[in-house]
Amino acid sequence: MKIAIVTDSTAYLPKDVRERLGIRMIPLSVIFGDETYREEIDMTADEFFVKIKQNPKLPTTSQPSVGEFVNLFTAIREEGYDAVISIHLSSGISGTYQGAVTAGTMVDGLRVYAYDSEISCMAQGFYAIEAAEMAKAGKMPEEILARLDEMKRTLRAYFMVDDLSHLQRGGRLTGAQAFIGGLLQIKPLLRFENKVIVPFEKIRTRKKAIHRIEELFAEDAEKGVPLKAAIIHANQPDEAHRWRDELSARYPHVEFSISYFGPVIATHVGEGALGLTWYQP
After folding, report:
1. Residue 280: other Cβ atoms inside 10 A
2. pLDDT by residue (tens digit) across 145-166?
3. DSSP state, residue 116
């Protein structure tokens, strides 16, 4: 069976990785006034952080239309594929997954399996990479989906933000939580739980927040089992590389990579956000 893998732009997979594994990407967009930019196509993360400094008003974000999914799935069918596994950011913060589900019912001659990662960014990217490698190895859709569910049991992700107001204004965190965090200058640790972003712990300083993420990571890393991990940053490449080097020296059995919060997710988490995600391969 010939299986295509699709993910959306919020996985923030490097172009060379997508090309090497044949992963198709459907973009979400950021909207500044009357201007719409498809992330990873019309606007890079670096360009986004420059533009947002020039625009005091927070941009809005939008998901791909059902029609865009239909066009992509139709093109995949015309290339001779039998099935597609379409892996998307959490349905609790975006309608992208539901768009893939709906489009899948509208394309004849192609079996469409939409998969809710229940998360985003490189954690979502891990699912897409695993699925693509299995598809290349000739695995069936049911085997791939079962493996993604298995990954979900070991995958962890925690992140901190410098400014809760972005999450609050974007409707991804309640106003009361944002107010309390801002008032006390708290750097909360956040995570996805039941498909939505929730506070995990309230911590006073950035340094302590990073240390707490390290403690949570150590609970798994110190077991000595192989892990794949990614540091995710919002326009903090130097800090991300330093952290990667420190953790790599401490845990040589862990395969680390560096990723980023691109335009759509950075709209909600703001510049300065930093996170760590990992799973057992």
Report:
1. 15
2. 999 999 999 999 999 987 666 5
3. E
Query: Do 181 and 188 contact (CB within 8 A), yes or no?
Result: yes
The residue whose two tokens read 């801002």 is 182
Angle between helices 206-221 and 237-250 (to 10 degrees): 40
Rounded distance between C-alpha atoms, residue 181 and residue 171, angstroms: 15
pTM given for the model: 0.93
Q: For residues 67 and 247, give the distance between their C-alpha atoms in angstroms, rounded to a whole number.
A: 43
- Please report where in the chains the tokens 């952080």 appear, as a residue: 49
Sheet strand arrangement including 189-193 = 196-201, 189-193, 156-160, 274-279, 227-233, 254-260
CA dihedral defined by 249, 255, 256, 257, rounded to 10 degrees? Answer: 150
Q: For the chain, how many helices (H) and strands (E)?
A: 11, 13
Model pLDDT for residues 71-125, shown as the tens digit of each residue: 999 999 999 999 999 999 999 999 999 999 999 999 999 999 999 999 999 999 9
Distance between alpha carbon 263 and the CA centroid of its chain, in Å?
12
Q: Two tokens at 48?
A: 């986004």
Q: Is 38 helix (H, G, I), strand (E, B) or coil?
A: strand
CB 160 within 8 A of CB 210: yes
